[in-house]
């Protein structure tokens, strides 16, 4: 990964001061290849996370998605230890564990425990791999918290390809995936291969997690995969609408977060997560206020 | 009858259960074309097991079973199924119409392509929603609906593929008594209109009393089949349960199944009556 960008940002304090001429600022921002890569990779990841996130929230598999990212940490750290780019390690570990988690079936409580146990072990492995690599803590931190400003052109292309595969998988699984998510008993009776859909979906989540880790890191994956989808769920009625809103929220947080980080030398992932979090709080407060407004006349 | 139809369901010496252990056995019955059959019995008597066998999700442990002229197979569009209610989070972005549409093409890969067949599909969905009287709220989120509204949506989903046999698993659970009777009437009306055969699993005969043709009572490992007047009686149920059971009838014709627990079962207690079927007025 390219650390030049981060060091550039970290050492110089505010990279650019706010000028009120946003267009000029934007032009300056996009004059740097690392910023262009960041905006583009961020866009791919936001679209994927918004779409996949709808199903993650619908199926109540947020914990599994979270666990996948932690397992991915072990993979990424392992890849660094053997001198391969972290994304390959992420992909290998996420896909394998996604298939296993998807195959575990729907007995939720048991699944939670199993997932938690595997998650803890994976984090331990990750710690070992990091120390095998003579403890370059920069690398560990960029896996944990994301390194969107370090996305190279090669990374970008790989991200785009994986993103397109992810979207193609969602498109292929679409109806059976919805069916098994909301109405598993009927889906099973109608000959939908419930177990296979579950496995393929968790592998789709694994791909989405692997590319999202570059943007927000292993620890903050919720902010892109779950928060925008949770915002969308509250303000939408149909699946299509929810996916669209989810993409808009994820994309808005990512791009706005990137733009803000141009002026303030703090981690981009902090800005992205904070924006999507604020969106969630606003939506919750708004729906609470609406409910109160509806109820109030009845009380009075 | 003007035309002779083969039975929709035919069972001979049928036994049902899980993992090789029979919960009930020796069931001989038929469900005829257009017939409404209620499956009754206490918890754990194997009522849902029977439905799963009809759906082809569980194999018979013994005996023979034929559904619509062949051995039951998963995925038949001629069978409509309404499973036991599951809770959906209120926030979930999923409308009633989305749920009904899945009943038609949810088993197909990919997403719905907006073409001519889509128009026909929407017609079928509208038709099913009209039939159950749910058109008015089908555009709302499923999670925000009341239990009764959601059951109608689920019923529309079961009907949308134009089945010949309708299987309903405890459609009255979580409904108050008034809505139970309304739901029973809706099902009965649709069954007559579309000449459907219905097998409905329930806890309590009372909401169904006026609409069912026959009752299939599962208890104590055995099965009794006949009209409600033949089956829901003290002698028949006593034989099934293997102990004294009384059936009380109130002034409005509602039946209450009451088990008499002998002193042997409770050495320190007097003989107590226990209502075996949760029936409240």
Protein described:
The complex is a heterodimer of chains A (300) and B (281). With 300 residues, chain A is an all-alpha fold. In chain A, 81% of the residues lie in helices and 0% in strands. Chain A has a single domain, classed as ABC transporter involved in vitamin B12 uptake, BtuC (Orthogonal Bundle). Chain A has 14 helices and no strands. The radius of gyration of chain A is 20 Å and the shape is globular. By secondary structure, chain B is of the alpha/beta class. Helix content of chain B is 27%, strand content 26%. Chain B has helices at residues 47-54, 96-105, 116-132, 147-159, 177-193, 228-231, 234-241, and strands at residues 9-18, 21-31, 36-40, 62-67, 79-82, 165-169, 197-201, 214-219, 222-226, 245-249, 255-261, 272-275. A six-stranded mixed β-sheet of chain B has the order 5-6-7-3-8-9, with helices on both faces. Chain B has a three-stranded antiparallel β-sheet with strand order 2-1-4, covered by helices on one side. Chain B has a three-stranded antiparallel β-sheet with strand order 10-11-12. Chain B starts with 8 loop residues before the first strand and ends in a 6-residue tail after the last strand. The chains are: A mainly alpha (300), B alpha/beta (281). Chains A and B meet through α8, α9, α12 and α13 of A and β5 and α2 of B.
Q: Any guess at the CATH architecture of the largest domain in chain B?
A: 3-Layer(aba) Sandwich
Quick one: overall form of chain B?
A: globular
Point out poorly predicted stretches of chain A: 1-14
Helices of chain A, by number, come to 14
Instruction: Report low-confidence residues of chain B grouped into runs of 5 or more.
Output: 263-272
Distance between the termini of chain A: 62 Å
- Shape by Cα distribution of chain A: globular
User: What does the main sheet of chain B amount to?
Assistant: 6 strands, mixed
Number of DSSP-assigned strands of chain B:
12
